[in-house]
Amino acid sequence: MAGRSDPPEGTPPEGFPNSGDDDYRSVVFDESFVRAARLQEYSATERVGDHAPAVRTLPPPPPAPAARTGRTQVLLLVLLVVLAFATAVYMGVRTPAQPTSDHRAEALQATVVPLAPTGPVPGGKPAELFLHSPAAQFRTGAEGIQLPIPRGTQHFSESQVQAALTIAKDYLVQSSLDPQVLTGREVRTVRLLLDPDQQDQFDAAFDTPARPGAEASGWLVRFNPEKVALAGGARANGTLRAVELGPDLLDVTSDHTFVYPLRPATGQGAARADGASLFTVRRELHFRYDAEDLRRHRTELLAASTLAGPQACGAPGAAQAWQPLLAGLRAPEPGEAPTAAPGAPTASAGASTAPSAAPAAGTDPYATGAATGALCGTLSAAAQPTGPPSR
Questions:
Q1: How far apart are CA 293 and CA 275, in angstroms?
Q2: 125, 158, 287, 370: which has the fewest C-beta neighbours closer than 10 Å?
Q3: pLDDT in tens, 51-79
Q4: Could you report the per-residue pLDDT of 309-338, keeping only the tens digit for each?
Q5: Residue 166 DSSP label
Q6: From CA 264, how far away is CA 328, in angstroms rounded?
């Protein structure tokens, strides 16, 4: 083995080329050899005195930077693997697994009830009508459909409940507030949110002529654009609630009131700024989801209960599109056409068509007394405004 004063390869043996003293001293050592030396000779200036040591011992060289970098990278890689594994375990515990569902969507069960006014329909400017109606505190458009704080259930995570509530809101916005849907120009955006098993029934409701028992008004809100035009943005108010039905089914129920400012369509009457009226629709919908519905952002609409007015009882075509009584008209007797009240002004201090924003428990602000037939009711006193519209 080479000593500390020998070259790294040791002393060349006898007979080896360049093994002579002169040849050996003529060897030019490279930089790595010099750096590897553990002894360093003092300079003449440093060797002061006869007994001063001729050499000094050098400390070991520091590790190469590349080696340190490599170890750091290995440690970081190990740390990332541990964090990824811990995250996977956490998500597996947090998100309960749903069993595979063989649930098939059922046919929609819809109830549609028109509500007739007890007097002439009040008219006025939309802002003034809203101001003096119980819908004054309703929010405009999609802002009126507020999502509750989602809470996970035994078999559905918080994020899955949030997804179900969001899909229900999307359905309500598309089917109740989209101007293209309201005016009968679009239905596809609503159809795409439904379970494929229900799409045939949905399509049947919009066939011409409509199939018996297929009511479009159960799926969405729309008006006949040849008779009615929107006079501004709709307002909405209501609630959403999610409940687990079983290990693989989640239900969401919604109860919302929508109030629409309407005016006669072009060619149906004078387009006066104060000739608008309010039309109210209360929709109670029952949605159902399985895990596949949540992944695909779709829903099953299980049941729909709709009350709407002012509208004449037995109005033709009401199952396909609502037939509102506009400003100044009153509900006719059975078999008669709607007529304007004698001398009725366009703005009236009569009944408002907006429902109560917060009905008392056990009361129905939409209908009063006995229904005038299986599918007709009357607007109640709870839907009266607090004062007449301003002029």
A1: 44
A2: 370
A3: 666 666 666 666 555 555 667 888 888 88
A4: 999 887 766 678 899 999 999 887 655 555
A5: H
A6: 11
φ, ψ for residue 370, nearest 5 deg: -80, 140
pLDDT at residue 201, as a whole number = 92
119: nearest Cα among 388, 340, 274 = 340
Question: For position 46, what pLDDT does the model report?
Answer: 65
Task: Confirm if 363 and 108 have CB atoms less than 8 A apart.
Answer: no
Query: Contact 258/221 with Cβ under 8 angstroms?
Result: yes
Identify the pLDDT of residue 211. 64
Q: Cite the beta strand spans of 30-78 per DSSP E.
A: 39-41, 55-57
Angle at 176 between CA 328 and CA 378, to 5 degrees: 40
Here the tokens at position 336 are 């008669």
Q: Which two tokens stand for residue 67?
A: 């080696």
Over residues 235-280, the pLDDT tens digits come to 999 999 999 988 889 999 999 999 999 999 986 655 555 689 999 9
Rounded Cα–Cα distance for residues 111 and 286 (Å) = 12
**Of the candidates 357, 276, 313, 269, the residue with the CA atom closest to the CA atom of residue 118:** 313
Q: In angstroms, rounded to a whole number, what is the distance separating the alpha carbons of residues 55 and 35?
A: 15
* Cα R_g (the chain), whole angstroms: 41
Residue 358, CA distances (Å) to 255, 256, 314, 363 in order: 12, 11, 29, 10
- What tokens were used for 136? 């004054």
Q: How many CB atoms lie within 10 A of CB 122?
A: 28
d(CA 43, CA 21): 23
Residue type, 81: V
CA nearest to 311, candidates 325, 330, 329: 325
